[in-house]
Prior knowledge:
Blueprint: H1 3-16, E1 22-37, E2 40-58, E3 61-67, H2 72-87, H3 119-136, E4 140-159, E5 164-182, E6 185-188, E7 191-195, H4 203-215, E8 226-232, H5 234-244, H6 250-254, E9 275-277, E10 300-304, E11 307-308, H7 315-320, E12 329-330, E13 339-340, E14 345-347, H8 354-361, E15 364-371, H9 373-376, E16 383-394, E17 397-410, H10 411-417, E18 420-421, E19 432-433, E20 437-445
Parallel strand pairs: 8-15, 14-19
Antiparallel strand pairs: 1-2, 1-4, 2-3, 4-5, 5-6, 5-7, 8-20, 9-10, 9-14, 10-11, 12-13, 15-16, 16-17, 17-20, 18-20
Amino acid sequence: xxxxxxxxxxxxxxxxxxxxxxxxxxxxxxxxxxxxxxxxxxxxxxxxxxxxxxxxxxxxxxxxxxxxxxxxxxxxxxxxxxxxxxxxxxxxxxxxxxxxxxxxxxxxxxxxxxxxxxxxxxxxxxxxxxxxxxxxxxxxxxxxxxxxxxxxxxxxxxxxxxxxxxxxxxxxxxxxxxxxxxxxxxxxxxxxxxxxxxxxxxxxxxxxxxxxxxxxxxxxxxxxxxxxxxxxxxxxxxxxxxxxxxxxxxxxxxxxxxxxxxxxxxxxxxxxxxxxxxxxxxxxxxxxxxxxxxxxxxxxxxxxxxxxxxxxxxxxxxxxxxxxxxxxxxxxxxxxxxxxxxxxxxxxxxxxxxxxxxxxxxxxxxxxxxxxxxxxxxxxxxxxxxxxxxxxxxxxxxxxxxxxxxxxxxxxxxxxxxxxxxxxxxxxxxxxxxxxxxxxxxxxxxx
Length: 447
């Protein structure tokens, strides 16, 4: 059965069953992932998935159901399961099937150049990344990974109020992790590319990025335990932002899980800090014209010059605080209920270059990498204690590499302590972005 016919029959049956407000959401996804090892294909994975979710208001409760098969039997199953699910809901939160907005922005997140890419060409590029790494260094002992692939997604929603929205997006990514052996010590590096066409993938550029990162770690040692004037490099700050973004989740705030509940309009950070959620960003990995409830998305400041402007809200959480949805109602998959999520979420860049910042700091520490974020960061209290790597700052320049250190602090306090925001914003294969920032002194445990 074609999807259009399935949708019409499902809607007609829903009305016959006495349902007044209901919605169907679909996702049609294809992904290809190729892993290369020693210039041969180690793994080739082509996945196609299609799924439909249905939700309906029954006695002011929202019931959900889903299926991967669209046929006559699935129609009754979706309706009956949604009705049954609604009976088990105990909260009294008001639920919504959205009538839609007057206008939706146009977002360019689909690239025709990525249609019908031949797998052989991707394999050639993957093998070439390994070869280019070997050209850049004769110290390569192994590879921790080498992969290339694409994702194509078409999705949309239609509801009983006449709303019909569809969109599609695609993406090509490539990465390599060479492992160098220098004086019997192993050093790894990471090179990557996010591309809009196969011609944009440059194996030599990716290899140079990875080899440089590995070579920069050569000779790394620990340092004395004490407080250091600390610069958090852009990619390391991105990893922190990813770990703590949920403090801005309006749903968690209303449940008392985020300490920012009820603080909208208050100063919570340094006046140097502005955090943006921008679903309309050009070439953003999470750019989208509408959320999974059908709300038109828009660029918004979460924190502006230190003031908490808004938390992220879907229709339900926005209604509870008498606000407008921020267009942040998203599903984790077609089978999931609507929750709250960010899009292109980033710290706005400043005017200071990274080199200028080092000159200003004079002596201290650059943190380039955090690890252990899943176990060492508490998004409720904001406390973190994380293994880290980086470089010393000596006389205003980047000094020797540093490893085997632990950096401890609190994310809420870190936001307040930001003194300088640099101009070197990066989005490292993610929809989260940040420039490098100077946060004053931090406690560092070394030797």
